[in-house]
């Protein structure tokens, strides 16, 4: 079972809290079904809401959040999300970080155990304090930059990138970018297909996504492929699901989209791999497996054929630091 957690701190921004709640709810609705019929798309998931002491958390004067329990030293999660919170200024944030030392130590333990950890805005200060942001610059909005520079004068800041992904750390500059960070986390702990689907239903940009197909058969087939492209894909099985022949499916799909279902799967894998190469420092072997290739050598050859350069060269040329 995939274990997700959100640490909710007093003053957390509603949008940051909602990013994971909404993403989890949407993914859970789709977990055991695809567009046509039933079938396992994602593994079971569980979301645990945490606070530093187990008590309810006040976001503002009108809203409080009930949590499941307090953090514990033996916690192990696949993904932990810490949304941004109101700081009140440099001196208040510095004092708060001292008060949150147990949380900082808890995050350091999770990071050391390999949990994927995401943080947004002011919550990045907790990861910096935990020693999890050392050799790379973290994203920051101009309004928060002076405060964080005062507290962490040696830490590197990046005021250009909206999201920074390094190893098991995902950082968002603020709540406007939190939905995309959660989608990237789902790329990692579920599958790129899950992240792709989440972006599409939340209105985020999805690579190589044309308008809804005029042919309902083609649109159903395309959505089916988009939910399964990171695993073994059988076009014959898809045709059977749709109760048409494979030849008819291929003919109508190509007439509508200008490519066969198999070519569409290849396009999905290629564009997803490009995004992952540009946005993360995951190994090429890991990305190959994530987008549906059992053999990294086959992935490298297919990528070079499509891009005209190797995957590693493409990554360098597209400015991943």
Automatic annotation (TrEMBL):
GO molecular function: DNA-binding transcription factor activity; sequence-specific DNA binding
UniProt KW Transcription regulation keyword: yes
Pfam families per record: HTH_18
Record keyword Disulfide bond present: no
Residues covered by the HTH araC/xylS-type domain: 219-317
Keyword set, alphabetical order: DNA-binding, Transcription, Transcription regulation
InterPro entries referenced in this protein's UniProt entry, alphabetically: Class_I_gatase-like, Homeodomain-like_sf, HTH_AraC
Name this polypeptide is given: HTH araC/xylS-type domain-containing protein
Organism of provenance: Novosphingobium malaysiense
């Amino acid at each position: 079972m995939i274990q997700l957690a959100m640490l909710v701190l007093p003053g957390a921004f509603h949008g940051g809290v909602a990013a994971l709640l909404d993403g989890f709810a949407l993914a859970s609705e789709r977990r055991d079904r695809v567009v046509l019929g039933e079938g396992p798309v994602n593994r079971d998931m569980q979301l645990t809401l945490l606070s530093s002491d187990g008590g309810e958390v006040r976001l503002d004067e009108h809203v409080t959040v009930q949590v499941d329990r307090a953090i514990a030293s033996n916690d192990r999660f696949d993904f932990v999300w810490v949304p941004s919170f109101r700081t009140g200024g440099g001196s208040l944030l510095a004092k708060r970080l001292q008060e949150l030392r147990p949380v900082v130590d808890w995050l350091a333990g999770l990071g050391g155990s390999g949990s994927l950890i995401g943080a947004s805005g002011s919550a990045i200060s907790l990861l910096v304090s935990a020693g999890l942001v050392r050799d790379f610059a973290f994203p920051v909005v101009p309004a928060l930059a002076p405060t964080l520079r005062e507290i962490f004068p040696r830490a590197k800041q990046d005021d250009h990138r909206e999201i920074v992904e390094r190893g098991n750390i995902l950082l968002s500059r603020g709540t406007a970018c939190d939905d995309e960070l959660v989608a990237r986390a789902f790329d990692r702990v579920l599958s790129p297909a899950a992240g792709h689907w989440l972006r599409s239903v939340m209105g985020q940009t999805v690579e190589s996504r044309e308008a809804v197909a005029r042919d309902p058969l083609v649109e159903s087939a395309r959505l089916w492929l988009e939910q399964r492209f990171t695993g073994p894909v059988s076009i014959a099985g898809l045709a059977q699901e749709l109760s048409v022949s494979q030849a008819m499916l291929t003919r109508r799909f190509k007439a509508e989209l200008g490519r066969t279902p198999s070519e569409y799967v290849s396009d999905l894998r290629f564009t997803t791999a490009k995004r992952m190469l540009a946005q993360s420092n995951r190994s090429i072997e890991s990305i190959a497996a994530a987008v549906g290739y059992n053999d990294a050598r086959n992935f490298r050859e297919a990528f070079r054929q499509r891009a005209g350069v190797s995957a590693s060269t493409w990554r360098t040329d597209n400015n991943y630091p």
